[in-house]
Design goal:
four-stranded mixed β-sheet, alpha+beta, about 150 residues
Length: about 150
């Protein structure tokens, strides 16, 4: 009897916890991004679950970055640092992100992107010179400026 009460209590607690979970990005923004980004486009993001949610994880574009975990890549190349703790001081980390930016047709950033992307002055300058926000998509979604390539 005690086991049944314990299992029932745990099931109720689990259901309550899961019913209050909210998506990090609203469904309307996911739909807008899916409409704005064509299938096969090269999308670079600091949170790949975004691209998985809209079926834009895989790209047909030559040279598109295959980076799956930005912060993990930062950690691996910098001895455990991220965008906030000095990963940008490691040339290999900056080169990894610069290579990804150069190939990208779209950038989809999260509000937590500064932890994942080491925004060095060079990366920020490249971003500002080559990308514009999409007005028809969600916040933090950028497209390469017309006439600009890698």
């Amino acid at each position: 009897m005690l086991a049944v009460v314990a299992l029932t209590t745990l099931a109720v607690l689990q259901a309550a916890a899961e019913s209050s979970i909210a998506a990090a990005i609203p469904a309307s923004e996911i739909s807008a991004a899916e409409r704005a980004i064509p299938p096969g486009a090269c999308v670079v993001t600091d949170q790949v679950s975004y691209t998985i949610a809209i079926n834009r994880f895989a790209s047909d574009a030559p040279g598109c970055s295959a980076m799956v975990d930005g912060v993990g890549s930062d950690y691996a190349l910098s001895g455990g640092r991220n965008g906030l703790t000095g990963a940008g001081d490691v040339p290999a980390v900056e080169q990894l992100w610069m290579s990804a930016f150069r190939a990208a047709q779209y950038l989809w950033l999260t509000s937590d992107n500064t932890r994942r992307i080491p925004w060095t002055p060079r990366l920020r300058a490249y971003f500002l010179a080559n990308f514009v926000p999409l007005t028809a998509g969600p916040d933090w979604l950028y497209a390469r400026k017309a006439g600009r390539s890698g």
